[in-house]
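Course assignment 3, question 2. Fill in each field.
Student: A.L.
Task: Predict the tertiary structure for the chain below.
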Amino acid sequence: MQIPSKYDANKVESKWYDYWMTHNYFHSTPDSREPYTIVIPPPNVTGVLHMGHMLNNTIQDVLIRRARLQGKNACWVPGTDHASIATEAKVVAKLKEQGIDKNDLSRDEFLKHAWEWTHEYGGVILEQLKKLGCSCDWDRTKFTMDDDMSEAVIKVFVDLYSKGLIYRGYRMVNWDPEAKTTLSDEEVVHEERQGNLYYINYKIVGSDDVLTIATTRPETIFGDTAICINPNDERFKHLKGKKAIVPICNRVVPIIEDEYVDLEFGTGCLKVTPAHDENDKTLGDKHNLEVIDIFNEDASLNSYGLQFEGQDRFIARTSVAKALDALGVLVKTETHINKVGTSERTKAVIEPRLSDQWFLKMEDLVKPAIKSVLHDNDIKLFPKKFENTYRHWMENIRDWNISRQLLWGQQIPAFYYGDGKDDFVVAEDVNAAVELARIKTKNNTLSLSDLRQETDALDTWFSSWLWPMSVFDGIRNPENDEIKYYYPTNDLVTGPDILFFWVARMIIAGYEYKDEKPFENVYLTGLVRDKQRRKMSKSLGNSPDALKLIEQYSADGVRVGLLLSSAAGNDLMFDEALCQQGKQFGNKIWNAYRLVDGWEIDATIQQPTSSKIAIEWYTSKFQKALIEIEDHFSKYRLSDALMAIYKLIYDDFCGWMLEIVKPAYQKPIDAVSYKAIISIFEDNLKIVHPFMPFLTEDLWHYISKRTPDEALIVAKWPQAKAVNATLITEFEFASEVISGIRNIRKQKNIAFKDAIPFSVINNENTNNTFDTIIAKLGNLEDINYINEAVDGALTYRVKSNEYFIPMAGAIDVEAEIEKLKEELKYTEGFLKSVQKKLSNERFVNNAPEQVVASEKKKEADALAKIETIKSSLSSLS
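Answer field:
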């Protein structure tokens, strides 16, 4: 089959992906082979392919394709996450466009819209991953809201509740006023922002005294229920036991004492608002203070805000400040930098809020996960530096707030039968709930209509923490064949930003429900940044369209471009030039095969010694590189593995090997060498395939007509063999000798078609193993081993060996003499101008020292060059 002159990625990629899918190469079922399993970090169902996904999934595909080539039963489970907050926000926005208010819908009506949205848009990112070449087992695609997945989540909730690990509590939580739901601490991003520090006077009851308070949030004064001073603060001893009046609302509040107050911050006095600050809540509990919630769920002021009721908190901040100023109690305002908590999903500023929520006790659950990673080394993090981050999070863990005030997600299986704090039961379904409620109330007439289910949904992470087990139905059917075969999985590839969100929680769940680790290794990728080190994002406009990159540079080119500089845990400075480099590498391999394919084969020709030696050398070079590549893979240094492959093929195979064995112009190649070259080429394709699957599969089928069982995707990874290190070392020396010949030919314009004599003083006692190759690539008449230097010859050294190319017959002497005379004339003129400058006393005395030194160096260099030119002219005369 004639290979085209150019590689057309657009045609090839769809052709081979369809071929792989048609022949079911990606699908895995349990058998007698060693399993190799990866579960995809499920992208949000709302997502589209971005550079982070490209990097993460390329790495996973490299690992899974290599495992497949190694003969393992490779299983890569794909899927998506229902992403409660993000998806609900999308659906609400779409409903708004249709003139529908979410609050006017029942839960079932809203969920119908949510499922319609999911079915229409939810599979986009998985389809895009196919364009990248991802070889996932698409038959196993899971969604965290699939019925079986949801059943597993509910089963785990009920189990943990029955163990006393889940409880309902009235706590200070992180409230997202845009999504109108609580968030866990890990979903809050703390950002430094510039705001104001407002100094406000509070009157002291029964006197003309005032107390000045500094606050960043004047709008919260409507929730003030105390003023706190430090008992050790001499400035405020006279206020002990007194009361103050809160401005505007005129509420009388006690002045309390607590060492919590920072003597140095602000005025040394603290206004206490227990409903809107976690530390204030602690003070409030300690001193039995009233708790006044002044915000609605959208963070607008409620009726406690008096005339400011209904105003957004930030508008109210300005309004209240103006009112305080009008009252004459706003002393001053200063700019102030402080850390503000924002929602990871909506970017809204978080509002601390007291609320009834569901929590999971983590103190005991976390212990096996700490032991596994930090002590027993059962689970390895790559790079190892992330163990410190893991340790910090896990050893300082707090109870997990697992409830969300959302409709999209698994509805918490708690059923209320009364208004009391404990008037509820937890069960997997309503029928079981009725039975439990009857037992608890001792009322056998209680029915389904007497129960109402908790309206909150579970945190999205509460479903994805079960992912490595639930995708194999390991929660509902813990002894099924698939969970026993595929679990624990092998490698997890993800970003360090979800090391706690997801990775740590999966480890916790794995030990709780399988008493086993969920995976062996965690490869943590870095962030993809632009050349200015900025994180790529839509808002900055610095994130390229992933699919357009593939269209422009090919999927293989983009994969190589991403991996050439993405060491584990280190951020990738993305540059499209890397994708161009990847594309060019593909073209290099393509053209290399076109060269080989164009050779005529003659079975009657004896194999040249140069070809025999070259094949032996490259075979050893390949084996040495293979050992290096395997080592890089074992340490998850995929960029280094790719670079080793790149150098091997680009430099050693294309740059040297093919040049050595290439037959003379319009001459045939011997059959023995050709067969060996094809075998070598196939091995090259095997090690490149995980990184560049499309190009390599295409070339594989041009080399030979293959059956589906012989496709490259299911070929065998090259086996390690003995390395002839001496041969490799000797070739390195020989390549320097060849480079020396080529440099002289270039400098002296000696045409390559002209064979030249060549002599060597062999001070290094090098073997003559590569002499035939040196002679071929240098086009030498012969190689003479001599004991004395050749007069009038061009010469160079490699280590202590001296090499000579006699001038006579090698170059046009007359032309070389004219060239040297011109160079001498120019150099003498240059020397004259430099010496004129140095003879000028004013210049020497006034110019900076380094300038004078530079001119003197120019003089010395020119004098040396003139001497060399004159010597060369003398030898030619």
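Instructor remarks: The mean pLDDT is 92. The chain is about 45% helix and 15% strand.
Grade: pending
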